[in-house]
Amino acid sequence: MNHPLHIYNTLTRSKEQFVPSQAPHVGLYVCGPTVYGDGHLGHARPAITFDLLFRYLQHLGYKVRYVRNITDVGHLEHDADEGEDKIAKKARLEQLEPMEVVQYYMTRYHKAMERLNVLPPSIEPMASGHIIEQIELTKQILEAGFAYESAGSVYFDVRKFDEVYGYGKLSGRNIEDMLHNTRELDGQGEKRFPLDFALWKNAQPEHIMRWPSPWGMGFPGWHCECTAMGRKYLGETFDIHGGGMDLVFPHHECEIAQAVASQQGQAMVRYWMHNNMITIEGKKMSKSAGNFITLDEFFTGEHQHLQQAYSPMTIRFFILGAHYRSTVDFGNDALQAAEKGLARLLDAAALLDGLKASGQTTVSVSGLRERCYEALNDDLNSPMVIAELFEASRAINSIHSGLASITAEDLEELRATFRLFLFDLLGLVDERQTDSGSQTAFSGAVDLLLQLRATAKSNKDWATSDRIRDELTALGFVIKDTKDGAEWQLK
Ligand code: ZN
User: Fold this and answer.
1) pLDDT single digits (tens) 281-305
2) Does residue 284 contact residue 330 with C-beta atoms inside 8 Å?
3) Residues near ligand 1 ion, CB 5 Å cutoff
4) Is 7-275 assigned to CATH 3.40.50.620?
């Protein structure tokens, strides 16, 4: 049969066969968005990458508990332990409750994810809802002797951890290199060693997001939430932890240190997976470069760098068109090519329904399913799956135009395989069909209600016929009775 699923493990720097520790259950944790600023393109890549993994693991028969957190507290400016919390800062500037800011961006994020056909995770925990767990984690690390209190804050003792368990295994860095690259930051005086990071921060008086703790009023350090919530929902050691490559250091390195220090050396995660970054016309996305484009701006085309709107499925297809460990460069030419490519595949999928079988197969479609599985099993090689589907779409087109033929059995297999990989696993949707499809269903449902009303009327069941008319009117329909029934339109 197939070569089993192999994934690249950042921890061992090699492709490894994926074997869950408690099959059929699989624990998957992915660092979700930091809810501040606008939902941007950078959010789309980890979401789509791990959505493909989530879909594929489920297809393979695993019961996946997928946890993707929302960082709504503790993420400070400059990703360091100093500076103002980003949510709190925005709340202060715009005179909003911090949770108003969180809710606003979370809703926008969810809407964008839905449009990208990213399945919701099994659990989406918020850092602010897990303060107790983070305090508990901090206590355990203190008790184990890998942290110290200083001026109402608690810091992780990196040197001590390095001596006992080794720090930097995931990122492959050693303490000397890290020290070399550390900037001197304000408030360094509280730390014993520059690489020490905050588990709990004492809240300054102006800090609005703060909670009581054994060390006074404060808030958790950013890295705590993932260790605390991963453990709560997936256990001390779980199967897969994912996120963007930019999180390897320091975030994931710190997550590991916290977990290992608080669970007597037991490992936190068996397989670490990281998606590569997105660039725009060869440049890193940043506010200062003016190429920071939100997902909504892509969907509407309203940005100076964009020549047109790009639909959510074009974005999804474009991201899946590159292997998740390669960089993806967004540019108008590449996106327009992706839009055309996706349309070709969707056209082929639509043609499949109408194809007629005949006595023999003259196209090469055998082995398509196996080759698509091989590609996904080889560290989720989605571009290879797409290449196979392009091959298949050429066959579909030649059968459609009468230049080739296919037997009923091969046609069934072609239909099943094409749909499985294009729709179920790559998660693409024919947006053209969705719009008109839902329109048709909508009209049909209203027509049906009006037919039921006509039946009620002819039975002199005035209560039912009035109720249908009144409730449709309340929903915004204008119902006009005609000689042979009723007409409707939306106000
Ligand atoms: Zn995280």
Assistant:
1) 888 887 777 788 889 899 999 999 9
2) no
3) 31, 226
4) yes
